[in-house]
Every structure is written in structure tokens, then in C-alpha cells.
Amino acid sequence: METISENKSFGGVQGVYSHHSEATGTDMTFGLFMPPRNGSVPVLWFLSGLTCTHENAMVKAGAQAFAAEHGIAVVFPDTSPRGEGVADHEDYDLGQGAGFYVDATEAPWSPHFRMESYILNDLTELLFSEFPLDRGAQAITGHSMGGHGALTLAAKSPGRFRSVSAFSPICNPSESDWGKKQFGAYFGSVDEGRAHDASLLAGAGKLNLPLLTDTGTDDQFSALLRTDALKSAVVGRADAEVRMQDGYDHSYFFVATFMGEHVGFHAKYLTA
């Protein structure tokens, strides 16, 4: 692991690091905020959206102040593999910057686009070997494509995360152009992507942990997010809340507005 930068922030340290990933076969970069601490600390994963790198949420989401208050570390992974020899596409929502947090099975994506394995295995093992983090106290959140990633990785990793939240998540990708296109490319068919659809996973009882999502009523991508599908899948659950926030859009201004509530939500489960 190489340290790219470390800056003091809210009494803790915001670092940026790089390492080689066996899952993606590439060098990967991630951000990690470590709060002021005594001993190991809980960790909140933040998965970013389309076109983003590790840097967008790290700089714009405003998580550090709230994480420091609650004594929680926050990790900001990249959204896809990058570099020479890594497949890409001219469309912004496919290829580099659009990993969708899945392991691709189809060429030319399968050699490197293995973001599910990267998050759940490679980066996890590196973090817990190099930093004083509590492996037994993890939560996950994300924005847009990263919200999809947070919900689906939580559903597919029962017992790993104590809670899950999301900002403007892609909720039903197998029925959306933000999903059909990517699943067709990465898996060869949309049907194969249904195993990575948060609403379908929730409806099958596989998203059984405390859940909070926020989406703006003025989100310019609302038709692609399909929030109602997730809401229907968790209806009646006391530990699941799918909220609509009046007048907010898809931007990081929206994310930053509700970041404190999301960190506080996770803190109830991470620091109990």
C-alpha cells in the first residue's frame, strides 16, 4: 500500500492510498477518514456513483465532521478499475467509472470489472490489516449507482453489515436503463442481473437489516431510480424507511444535507 496524502480533518486524518488489487488486476485508489480514536473503530463504507472516483464523496459529501463526532471511520473506494488495458466505453454510464459493484462475466469486462470482489474481499482485507478498524462493526451507504451497490452488497453479505443506507439509489436496475444496459454488457443478459437488483433482493427477504434511503422529489433521474419498487418491497418493515425529500435533486448538495442523519443512523448500530 502506498500513501498518496494524509491531511488532518476534524481531529482525525483524511488519507488517500493506492494498492494493487488481485480482484481487478489493477492498481486501485481509495480514501479513508480515521476519526480521533483510542483503539479500533467502526467503519462506514461510502460507495460513489456514475463517473465518480474515490474523491467525489470524500470532498463533497461532508461526512468527516459527523464521523469524527461519532468515532466512525469512513472508506471511499473508487467506482471501477482504471488504466491501460482496462476495457472502457464512450458512454458515461458504462465502463470506467461505472463498475456497478458487480463481478462481470462477459468479455471485454470480465478480466478487470470485479468490483464486488474488490469491495468485499481485496479492499476489506487490506483495510483491516493496515488500519485499526473493528471488523465486527461495519455499515454501508452510497449514492446513486453506489446506493445500488450499498443495498445489493448488504443483501448479498448477510451478517456482515449492521445497517445500510443510500442516497438516490438505483433501486430496480433490471427494469431501468441504468441497469439493463450495464447488466447486458457485464453479464450478457438482463436476466442475469436480477440477482443484483435491490428491490428484487428485498422482496425475496434478503435485505434484512436496518435500512434508510433518501431521494429528492426533484431528482432529475427519478425515472431511472425506480424508488417506488424498493418502497413496495420493504413496506410494513419497522426497520426500513424509504424517504422522499421535498425539492431536492440528485447532487452532492442533497447528499451533504442529509449526511449527518445517515451517519447518525449508522452510529446507532455501530456504536451500540
Estimated structural class: alpha/beta
Query: What are the secondary-structure elements, in order, as H or E?
Result: EEEEHHEHEHEHHHEHHEH
CATH architecture: 3-Layer(aba) Sandwich
Strand segment count: 9
- Assembly state here? single chain
| Average pLDDT | 97
Q: Can you tell me the CATH class? A: Alpha Beta
Strand content: 15-25%
Largest sheet: 6 strands, mixed
> Do you know the CATH topology?
Rossmann fold
Q: Tell me the overall shape.
A: globular
Terminal CA distance reads 32 Å
Rg (C-alpha, Å): 17 Å
Number of domain units:
1
Arrangement of strands in the largest sheet: 1-2-3-5-4-6
Question: Explain this structure to me?
Answer:
α2 (63-70) packs parallel to α10 (252-270). The chain is built from 10 helices and 9 strands. It has a 6-stranded mixed beta sheet, with helices on both faces. The chain is of the alpha/beta class. The longest helix is centred in the C-terminal third of the chain and has 19 residues, at 252-270. The protein has one domain: Rossmann fold (3-Layer(aba) Sandwich), CATH 3.40.50.1820. The protein starts with a strand and ends with a helix.
In short:
35% of the residues lie in helices and 23% in strands. The chain has helices at residues 55-60, 63-70, 115-130, 145-156, 177-187, 190-193, 198-203, 222-225, 227-234, 252-270, and strands at residues 2-9, 12-20, 27-34, 41-47, 73-77, 133-142, 164-167, 211-216, 240-245. Strand 1 and strand 2 form a beta hairpin.
